[in-house]
Design goal:
heterodimer; A: mainly alpha; three-stranded antiparallel β-sheet; 17 helices; 3 strands; B: mainly alpha; 74% helix; 4% strand; elongated
């Protein structure tokens, strides 16, 4: 505990944790919209396309100044998104090709610019490489102000246009019929995805930033059916995974931050996909199993009831072997479970062999209730 | 003489780039047409995982084992993506974006943990080292041949054979998957083979251009070719030619400016795409605009012809079918009316009879074709 406390008093670790939290919050919130609008891969394109902007920002400022670098990244990201739209609207190329083209060509230009900067032997170029895979330890306190400012701006935008964004995300046609400027709102959402990318560049790097947009939102979607809940959860998941991965990388052996953060958040995604109530795969499997069990017990109970009705004997004792033969499977477990619920009881029935079962009064009521629900019109 | 060729470093570098491009275009054509371009993005990122795993297990950085390993990684990526999509909890695009970052992250972490001193470092992963292909050579008879050139040459050959052998099947599966399945051509198996070859090519190209730039080689030239032609074999051919041209131009520009050769080659594919987008003969932006412009002109001429036809032989013909009336009847400005008039006179749609405009038989046919579509007399008559 003391070690943990000491860890968080470390200056670098504080910076990293704060930066990672900002990154997680912004990419979680803005990514939620991107994922719901099925524009996940646009995040991938935007993040790769940020590389030339990073380099241009560096060239213009002449030094590793975060403000100009992020502005450059935002500009080239937006340019890539615009070109993508132009390519797909004004030619026969489809969205996937448009995304792939802008992603790879912008990245190639970025690589060219990066090697150009390296060729000029600028002494302060050192921090630039960290934008490829992210380097949490390179974050300065002043960088945090820039990141925090952008995060606040993005969150304020989301809060201000919450209703509009929600409508455009779920039903753009209806939004249009209400007279909302759908295109403007969609462009705004895209620009904000670019903002989220820009905030995370330094921590996660251009190559893996796509995962930061997608993963927290997918995980959060598992736990909530409401946009409000999803957005807040995505922010929390992004921040938690970000801080965990970021601090791990800053204290470890200089491991790249991006992969660690991405793996932390992906672990949360995996858990969410499996166990989230309602939508989790294991949860669904358990639900199916419970349903199956309930159906079986209802069947067996009503079968006992029908047999006793046929014999016009409420206390008729049915042999378990007969029920097994009727269903073709062993019903012992189901009967035992019914007995536990007090609906049937096993009776010795000499001189015949085998276990016999008779309905208890509450078993009869339950069976009548089930049959009545099955055939409501017959009663 | 052949030895001189193999010792010519610039030539070797250009040839490597060109082979990457040709091998990639052969497959990329089908990925672009099938609207699966972004799978190449996923595959080329996640092969980093396969390369590192194979390297940790066998100690081999390249060669056939690596290529097979990568092919399997690529298929694993696609398989995991489909698995996620089939849970119906995640949409296709998000599934792609979830799977490859994980595999890529594990790959990069493993490189950092175990492979720090080896030449597969983080940068090689992204940039490749096409400038150094001549360092790693293999003695074949009297010649020292760069290893990348050999493996890429082999991949190009394999891809070409695959496409040539299954050309008909690939074509059918790409353009009409349902029919291909109904005829028993196993389009899914064909698709997986395509993706397996894509991964293998990505790994063969990995040393030279890295993981991310490979995406440019596989998507961009076929997309540019798609803007230039409607025929499948021409699309493959044009894509390959664009790759070769990009390699040559990219090499010389990169040498002149002293920047990344692979990056410059990939940038050049983008330049060619932009050129095709702007100047393509049929689907280019300028061709589209010109077509739209000439259509607008044709429509103006037609509108005038219809107007004259409607008022032909009317009592008020002398009022309606005069130059001055176009302004009120068609709401054309004076200038526009004059322009259309001159053009229509040139096209022999009408003649001037003093102030009155009269349709020629040709102009009347144009008008009747619109106003009375059932009117069958051909325009040539």
């Amino acid at each position: 505990m003391d070690a943990l406390l000491a860890l968080f008093q470390d200056y670098t670790v504080q910076n990293v944790a704060l930066g990672a939290a900002l990154l997680g919050i912004s990419s979680g919130v803005l990514g939620s919209f991107a994922v719901l609008r099925q524009q996940s891969l646009l995040g991938d394109t935007l993040s790769h396309a940020a590389l030339p902007g990073v380099c241009l920002g560096f060239i213009v400022a002449g030094t590793r100044q975060l403000g100009s670098i992020l502005l450059g990244a935002l500009l080239t990201g937006a340019l890539a998104a615009l070109l993508m739209l132009l390519l797909t609207r004004r030619s026969r190329l489809k969205t996937d090709a448009g995304l792939g083209i802008t992603l790879s060509v912008f990245f190639a230009v970025g690589i060219v610019l990066l090697t150009y900067i390296q060729g000029t032997n600028n002494a302060s170029q050192g921090g630039l490489d960290s934008f490829l895979f992210g380097q949490a330890a390179a974050i300065l306190r002043s960088d945090l102000y820039v990141m925090g400012g952008i995060t606040l701006f993005a969150l304020a935008l989301v809060a201000a246009f919450w209703k509009e964004f929600k409508l455009v995300t779920f039903d753009p046609a209806f939004a249009g019929s209400l007279g909302l400027p759908v295109t403007v709102l969609e462009v705004l959402l895209t620009v904000m995805t670019a903002l989220a990318v820009v905030i995370g560049l330094q921590m996660v790097g251009v190559v893996l930033m796509a995962a930061m947009i997608i993963a927290p939102a997918v995980a959060a979607r598992q736990w909530s059916n409401r946009l409000e809940g999803m957005v807040i959860l995505a922010a929390a998941i992004g921040a938690a995974g970000g801080v965990f991965g970021g601090v791990l990388s800053a204290t470890g052996r200089g491991l790249p931050t991006g992969p660690l953060i991405v793996l932390s958040i992906s672990a949360i995604v995996l858990v969410s996909l499996l166990v989230a109530p309602g939508r989790g795969l294991l949860w669904e499997a358990a639900q199916r199993w419970r349903n199956g069990r309930r159906l079986r017990s209802q069947q067996v109970l009503t079968a006992l009831y029908e047999v006793s009705q046929r014999h016009q004997d409420p206390a008729y004792k049915t042999e378990q072997g007969m029920v097994n033969a009727y269903y073709g499977v062993g019903t012992g477990a189901t009967l035992a479970q019914l007995q536990q619920r007090g609906l049937v009881r096993s009776m010795p029935h000499m001189p015949e062999e085998g276990v016999h079962w008779e309905l208890t009064p509450s078993g009869r009521t339950e069976a009548e209730r089930i049959l009545k629900n099955l055939n409501p019109q017959e009663s | 003489m052949l030895a001189d060729l193999f010792d010519n470093i610039p030539l070797m570098i250009i040839a490597t780039g060109a082979l990457v491009g040709v091998a990639a275009s052969l497959l990329g054509t089908f990925l672009v047409l099938r609207k699966n371009s972004m799978l190449s993005d996923a595959i080329s990122h996640s092969i980093v995982f396969g390369i590192v795993i194979v390297w940790l297990l066998t100690g081999q950085q390249s060669g056939p084992v690596q290529i097979v390993g990568a092919a399997l990684t690529g298929l694993l990526t696609v398989f995991l993506t489909e698995l996620l999509v089939n849970t119906r909890k995640v949409k296709n695009d998000a599934a792609i974006g979830l799977v490859f970052p994980v595999l890529f992250s594990i790959g990069v972490l493993l490189i950092n943990l175990y492979a720090r001193d080896v030449h597969i470092d983080q940068h090689a992963v992204l940039l490749g080292e096409i400038g150094f292909v001549w360092l790693d050579t293999l003695q074949i008879g009297p010649y020292r041949v760069p290893q990348s050139l050999l493996s890429l040459g082999a991949m190009t050959l394999v891809n070409f054979t695959f496409v040539a052998l299954f050309y008909k099947e690939l074509k059918l599966a790409t353009f009409d998957e349902g029919l291909a399945r109904a005829l028993g051509f196993a389009p899914v198996a064909l698709f997986y083979a395509l993706l397996g070859l894509t991964s293998a090519t990505a790994v063969a190209a990995f040393d030279s251009v890295g993981a991310v730039l490979f995406i440019a080689f596989i998507i961009v030239p076929p997309s540019a070719a798609y803007l230039l032609t409607d025929r499948l074999w021409k699309m493959i051919l044009y894509g390959s030619l664009i790759s070769v041209a990009s390699s040559i131009l990219g090499y010389f520009l990169a040498s002149a400016w002293n920047v990344s050769i692979g990056g410059m080659m990939a940038t050049m594919t983008g330049v060619f795409l932009l050129l095709a987008f702007l100047f393509g003969p049929r689907y280019g932006l300028i061709a589209q605009e010109l077509r739209r412009y000439s259509q607008r002109q044709d429509n103006e001429g037609r509108a005038l012809a219809v107007h004259l036809y409607n008022h032909e032989h009317e009592p008020r013909e002398r009022e309606a079918n005069v130059v001055g009336a176009l302004r009120n009847h068609l709401r054309w400005s004076e200038e526009k009316a004059r322009r259309v008039l001159v053009r229509s006179l040139d096209q022999n749609l009408l003649t001037r009879d003093g102030d009155t405009l009269r349709l020629t038989p040709r102009g009347r046919a144009v008008a009747r074709e619109i106003v009375e579509p059932w009117y069958q007399e051909s325009l040539e008559a």
